[in-house]
Structure formats: C-alpha cells, structure tokens
Design brief:
About 20% of the residues lie in helices and about 40% in strands. It is built from two helices and four strands, in the order ββαββα. The model has no long low-confidence stretch (mean pLDDT about 85).
C-alpha cells in the first residue's frame, strides 16, 4: 500500500480528522483521531512506559484501533487511531 504524509496543525487535546480521498475516480472517507496520552494519568507513573500505554489503551473506544504511536516526550505520547470502518477500507486496498 502506498502512503502519503499530511501535516496536521499542532492543536491541544484530541483531534478528529476526516480525510476525503479520490483514487481513480472513487471517493472514500477515512477517519483518524490523534490523542495525547499524558504520563501523569497512569495509575502507576513509575512503571515502564510501555505498560502505561497498554493500561491507557485498555479502556479505549473499541470503534477505533491504534494506527501509529508517535515519539514520546517527558509529558506525553501522541497516538493516532483509525476508525474501524476506515481500517477495513485500507485492508481492502491492499488485498
């Protein structure tokens, strides 16, 4: 599958993103969400950060799946999700 990068303006909080693409005359909508997960929100903030991410994702909306985990910093880790219906479109594209 080919990839393109689309810069997203840095905004605070959750970002809901709708991308409308037309490929060979066929329109499709893809839905993404970027969230910042703050380390201080972990129930055990001294634990390994991978465990912290796993804990935070365990309670996440099942209609969204993890698409990309960004580079963490000292405050948070940005995580990009894709809506399941969009994920299905992406899977069909590579089948």
């Amino acid at each position: 599958m080919s990839h393109i990068a689309i810069p997203i303006p840095p905004l605070q909080g959750k970002q809901e993103i709708k991308v409308e693409v037309t490929i060979n005359g066929i329109k499709q909508n893809l839905f993404y969400r970027v969230e910042l997960f703050y380390w201080e929100d972990c129930s055990n903030p001294v634990a390994h950060r991978a465990d912290c991410i796993s804990e935070m994702l365990a309670h996440h909306d099942p209609e969204w799946t993890v698409y990309y985990i960004g580079a963490p910093n000292d405050e948070f880790v940005p995580i990009t999700f894709v809506k399941k219906e969009s994920r299905n479109l992406l899977r069909e594209a590579i089948a």
